[in-house]
Amino acid sequence: MTELLEQAIANMKNLPDNEQDTIATIILEELEDEMKWEKVFADSQDMLAKLAAEAMTEYQAGKTQELDPETL
């Protein structure tokens, strides 16, 4: 555990129980969200590689056109 985290936990120990629970809930939700994003990102790598290969195939076959920001 880092010194900063130890300091934060030490400071939180002085808070009322309801405030400790609120902070703990926020931390746990953030950690859960982070794990979900990591899984989604890891699971998407194969799909992204497939889409990139398809895009390159279309580009090499001349089936693409240059993007004109003025027409967006």
Topology:
Blueprint: H1 3-12, H2 17-60
Task: Describe the fold and architecture.
The structure is a single chain. With 72 residues, the chain is mainly alpha-helical. It has one domain. 75% of the residues lie in helices and 0% in strands. It contains two helices and no strands. The protein has helices at residues 3-12, 17-60. The longest helix has 44 residues, at 17-60. The chain is elongated. It starts with a helix and ends in a 12-residue tail after the last helix.
List the main descriptive attributes of the protein structure presented here:
mainly alpha; 72 residues; elongated; 0% strand
Task: Tell me the Rg in angstroms.
Answer: 23 Å
What is the rounded distance between the termini? 49 Å
Detail the poorly predicted runs.
none
Number of helices: 2
Number of domains: 1
Please estimate the helix content.
over 70%
Major sheet: none
How large a portion of the residues is in β-strands, by DSSP E?
under 5%
Mean pLDDT level: 94
Structural class determined from secondary elements? mainly alpha
Shape: elongated
By DSSP, the count of extended strands is 0
Order of helices and strands: HH
Quaternary organisation: single chain
